[in-house]
Amino acid sequence: MPQAAKITAVDALPANEAKWIEFQKITWSDQEGKSRVWEAASRKTRGQSGVDAVAISTVIRHPSKPPSTIIILQYRPPADAVCVEFPAGLVDASETPSDASLRELHEETGYKGKLSYISPTIVSDPGMSTANMQLATVEVNLNEGDKEPEQVLDEGEFIERVVVPLDELFERLEKYSKEGKKVDARLWHWAAGLHFARTML
Predict the structure, then answer these.
(1) Label partner for 52 (CA 20 to 30 A): which of 5, 43, 127, 199?
(2) What does the pLDDT read at residue 201?
(3) Which residues are paired to 140 by β-bridges?
(4) pTM score, two decimals?
(5) Domain Nudix hydrolase, which positions (predicted)?
(6) CA distance linking residue 120 with residue 113, whole number of Å
């Protein structure tokens, strides 16, 4: 059984060692014409599409089971916690976000499906980062007796896949949070929207 991941050191990262991100000093003029400076982190990997990453909300349809979705659990060093997230990943240099969505879903979960929607480009943490993404919805249609597919993980990826009925998702995320796991904001907002639409409208 794999051991628990843990942080062994935290050091300042010299710019010449940074493979994935860089710091930017942004000089800008505010609404009163005053010159200001903003600090931001920026990905170095943005390709032709202009989109850094995709996250995938999945709807699994089965003849005898309730509609479900797929979430993943993986340790994230910046949070120093196991995080609960949508399947997600970076868009390759020459890839479209739509293609990346189907590829990442298959790699991280083993499932294949049909892209039914992809969002406009949205920002992830605009006060601190230039990072952006698109949120895809992929429908997976299963038949009776279909076996759970194998994940296609890269070396060094440790991702646990969890299939959750949609009407249990909000409560499952609350449970994970009480266990000390950290829930990704995009997944939380999506689940909360489903929950509030069901219980408050």
Answers:
(1) 5
(2) 81
(3) 60
(4) 0.94
(5) 51-187
(6) 20
**Positive or negative CA dihedral for 101, 106, 107, 109?**
positive
pLDDT at 131 over 90: yes
Question: Using H for helix, E for strand and C for coil, what is the string for 149-194?
Answer: CCCCCCCCCCCEEEEEEHHHHHHHHHHHHHCCCEECHHHHHHHHHH
User: pLDDT for 59-80, tens place per residue?
Assistant: 999 999 999 999 999 999 999 9
Q: Taken in order 57, 63, 66, 71, is the CA torsion positive or negative? A: negative
Q: Hey, what amino acid is at 159?
A: I
pLDDT at 1 over 70: no
Residue 94: CA count within 13 A, CB half-sphere:
0
Is the backbone of residue 80 left (phi > 0), alpha (psi -120 to 50) or beta? left
Give the tokens for residue 19. 């493979």
Q: Where are the domains of the chain?
A: 46-199
Share of the chain above pLDDT 70, in %: 100
